[in-house]
Amino acid sequence: MMNIKRNVLLNPGPATTTDTVKMAQIVPDICPREKEFADLMKQLRLDLLKVVHADPEKYASVLFCGSGTINIDVCLNSLLPANKKVLVVNNGAYSSRAVEVCEYYGLPFINLQFPYTQQPDLEQVEETLKNNPDIGIVYTTHNETGTGLLNPIREIGAIAHKYNTIFIVDTTSTLAMRPINMQEDNIDFCMASAQKGLMSMTGLSFVIGNKQVIEASKDYPKRSYYCNLYLQYDYFNKTGEMHFTPPVQTIYATVQALKEYFEEGESAKWARHTRIFNAIHAGLDELGFKDVIKRELQAGLVVSVLYPDDPNWDFQKVHDYCYERGFTIYPGKISSTNTFRLCALGAIDEQDVKDFFVVLKEALMYYKIQIPVIYKDKE
Ligand SMILES: *Cc1c(COP(=O)(O)O)cnc(C)c1O
């Protein structure tokens, strides 16, 4: 085995991977149209269903070559019947991305916007469905990765189903970390990419969804060629292959990552992420940093932190100091507030976070940033 430098990525994906996942990409050259490769994808697709406890009789996973955003594009452009609208339950950057996808395709939509620091008001969601019988899709994001806020998907899904609509959830930053159960969580479609919860490489994304709905979408308006869900699903059924060239190496890595996922186990893995998350909070508390989102509303994977009001604070400098020492931290994604993020993704554990905070503290001292850090609006 080669000696590969280990970096601790505290950014919201791609995540730190194991060496065994990295090495799984080094295989003899293969044409992905060979049966051997189709067999690999067949098992991978079934394993993805297992991650979200989806019955293969009822659900299918469909693979795409692209980053996670391809799933948002695919679901919205493919699953909306003619004369129907999308309702986006929006309290963050990723649901806003779905709104942009609707705009780009000219899909009719309602952008039901809530503050990015709060969970959506379910009564308002229901009211909107009641008043708009032409809504065909309810869409939201499970963990708003920009802030780390958890959305009550099970409850939103129940409302969506009460009004006979399809419920699509962007689970990119929870799947294979925070446990998900398609049926119990009232999800018709969810999605992720290989480099987040699964701790694999970039380039492979997947949608998991209700087969009946995918089959019905065969006759819906066709708004994209490369990103049509039915076309890709149908091609898999007929040939066992992706319609176009798959990300071969990432698929090998993901097969290994899934093996490691099932070896670690759903609840042990979630417990590990929780341990990391708690260690992040402990480290932040010790240095006096403040969260953006109330603790009880956080999804347990991303902590969004307010910049201190210290004249010497410079995120880029602190980032560079940590980066040079093997720790990657990430800027925030809230336009109105200066924040950075620390995430509990990847093949890391509590000790890595403790090691990180030693370095972060050094960085603060090096740049003469006051500890505990200071905020102007002291309570
Ligand atoms: C990472 C992520 C995506 C996908 O982003 P890409 O940059 O396309 O990989 C989508 N939704 C959520 C919630 C995410 O965290």
Q: Which SSEs are present, and which pair or pack?
A:
Layout: E1 8-9, H1 19-23, H2 35-51, E2 59-65, H3 69-78, E3 85-90, H4 93-105, E4 109-113, H5 122-131, E5 135-141, E6 143-144, E7 149-150, H6 153-162, E8 166-170, E9 189-193, E10 204-210, H7 211-216, H8 229-239, H9 248-264, H10 266-287, E11 302-306, H11 315-323, E12 327-328, E13 330-331, E14 339-343, H12 350-366
Parallel strand pairs: 1-12, 3-4, 3-5, 5-8
Antiparallel strand pairs: 2-10, 6-7, 9-10, 11-14, 13-14
Helix pairs in contact: 2-9, 3-4, 5-6, 10-12, 11-12
The protein binds pyridoxal-5'-phosphate.
Q: Which key features would you list for this structure?
A:
single chain, 379 residues, alpha/beta, 4-stranded parallel sheet, 3-stranded antiparallel sheet, 39% helix
Describe it.
With 379 residues, the chain is an alpha/beta fold. Helices cover 39% and strands 16% of the residues. It is built from twelve helices and 14 strands. It has helices at residues 19-23, 35-51, 69-78, 93-105, 122-131, 153-162, 211-216, 229-239, 248-264, 266-287, 315-323, 350-366; strands at 8-9, 59-65, 85-90, 109-113, 135-141, 143-144, 149-150, 166-170, 189-193, 204-210, 302-306, 327-328, 330-331, 339-343. It has a four-stranded parallel sheet, with helices on both faces. A three-stranded antiparallel sheet has the order 2-10-9, with helices on both faces. Strands 11-14-13 form a three-stranded antiparallel sheet, with helices on one face. Strand 6 and strand 7 (149-150) form a beta hairpin. The radius of gyration is 21 Å and the shape is globular. Pyridoxal-5'-phosphate (PLP) is lined by residues 12-13, 67-69, 94, 141, 145, 170, 172-173, 193.
